[in-house]
Amino acid sequence: MLVTIRLFARLRELVGAGELRQELPAAADARTAWDALVAAYPALSGYERGTSCAVNEEYARWTTKLNDGDEVAFLPPVSGG
Amino acid sequence: MDRWSISGGYNFRKGSRGSGGSGVPEVQVQGSVSERYVVTPDALDVARISALVGSDDCGAVATFVGLVRDANAGRRVLWLDYEAYAPMAVSTFQRIAAEASGRWPAARLAIHHRVGRLEIGEASVVIAAASAHRAEAFAACRFVIERVKQIAPVWKHEHFEGGDVWIEGSTADPDDQAARDAAFARACS
């Protein structure tokens, strides 16, 4: 399946892009997407702690299953306000 | 304007009720859902945002205005760049408002957050909470800003004398009951 990965703030800067396309195996979940990302961008290693994920603009769990065409976002600790 | 910001007031939401055409009468001076929960690069107007929540049965509007401060953690701050996952920030504002409505059913809320470069003294966020009486308005307003800081997908990049740093606060988890309870406790203290 092909998913869109969105990155924000520090994670976006570490990768140098805020939006990526990623091919993932069937039955992938959000963690699969993160692991693929870290494999391509080792600078992200260790940032999983504190990072939240969202699928199609809704907060999700690392175990949330992905479908072809989904948008999965990785969100560093937030600091709005 | 950084490229992750949106280019105008964010005003669509699946299932949201527009200000006209639905056949449902709106309270005269209350803004529609799309007007009340907004991420925008434009300057925030507190009076206009307050007017979105008022109505004839409303005796109080409490507002909170977050400002860019010139110092943080011993650093002299020059400016802040705010970044948001805009559509999700807007839906998170609606989620927060729904949580507040569970506790203060009569409260009506507006949440506007600005993105992009903000100078010292500019408003980054405005919360307006209206209710029949002041106690509910103050409490709902306080709860909402606490929750915005806990779970809204918004980030500030601080530029200070000598460098810059991403400010990282809460790990966002809307289902974290302890965090929500802490926000209610602060609102009601």
Order of helices and strands of chain A: EHEHEEE
The portion of residues forming beta strands of chain A comes to: 25-35%
- The separation of the N and C termini of chain B measures 39 Å
Report the helical percentage of chain B.
25-40%
Q: How far do the termini of chain A sit from each other?
A: 37 Å
- Let me know the average pLDDT of chain A: 97
Question: Which regions of chain A contain 5 or more consecutive residues with pLDDT less than 50?
Answer: none
> Which regions of chain B are unreliable across 5 or more consecutive residues at pLDDT < 50?
1-29
Number of helices of chain A: 2
What is the N-to-C order of secondary-structure elements of chain B (H for helix, E for strand)?
HEHEEEHEEEHEEH
Structural class of chain A: alpha+beta
Radius of gyration of chain B: 17 Å
Name the largest protein-protein interface in this structure.
A-B, 22 and 35 residues
The oligomeric state of the chains shown is heterodimer
Based on CA atoms alone, the radius of gyration of chain A comes out at: 12 Å
- How are the strands ordered across the major sheet of chain A? 2-1-5-3-4
Based on DSSP secondary structure assignment, what is the total number of beta strands of chain B?
9
Helix segment tally of chain B: 5
Round the mean pLDDT of chain B to the nearest integer and report it. 87
Quick one: overall form of chain B? globular
Query: How much beta of chain B, percentage-wise?
Result: 25-35%
Could you walk me through the main structural features you see in this protein, from its secondary elements to its overall organization?
The complex is a heterodimer of chains A (81) and B (189). With 81 residues, chain A is an alpha+beta fold. Chain A is built from 2 helices and 5 strands, in the order βαβαβββ. Chain A has helices at residues 9-15, 30-40, and strands at 2-7, 19-23, 52-55, 58-60, 71-75. In chain A, strands 2-1-5-3-4 form a 5-stranded mixed β-sheet. The longest helix of chain A has 11 residues, at 30-40. Chain A starts with a strand and ends in a 6-residue tail after the last strand. Chain B has 189 residues and is of the alpha+beta class. Chain B is built from 5 helices and 9 strands; from the N terminus they run H-E-H-E-E-E-H-E-E-E-H-E-E-H. Chain B has helices at residues 33-36, 46-51, 86-103, 134-151, 177-187; strands at 37-40, 60-67, 71-72, 75-84, 108-114, 116-119, 123-131, 154-160, 163-167. In chain B, the strands form 2 sheets. In chain B, strands 3, 4, 6, 8 and 9 form a 5-stranded antiparallel β-sheet that branches. A 4-stranded mixed β-sheet of chain B has the order 1-5-7-2. The longest helix of chain B is centred in the middle third of the chain and has 18 residues, at 86-103. In chain B, 38% of the residues are buried. Residues 1-29 of chain B have low confidence and may be disordered. The chains are: A alpha+beta (81), B alpha+beta (189). The interface between A and B is medium-sized, with 22 and 35 residues.
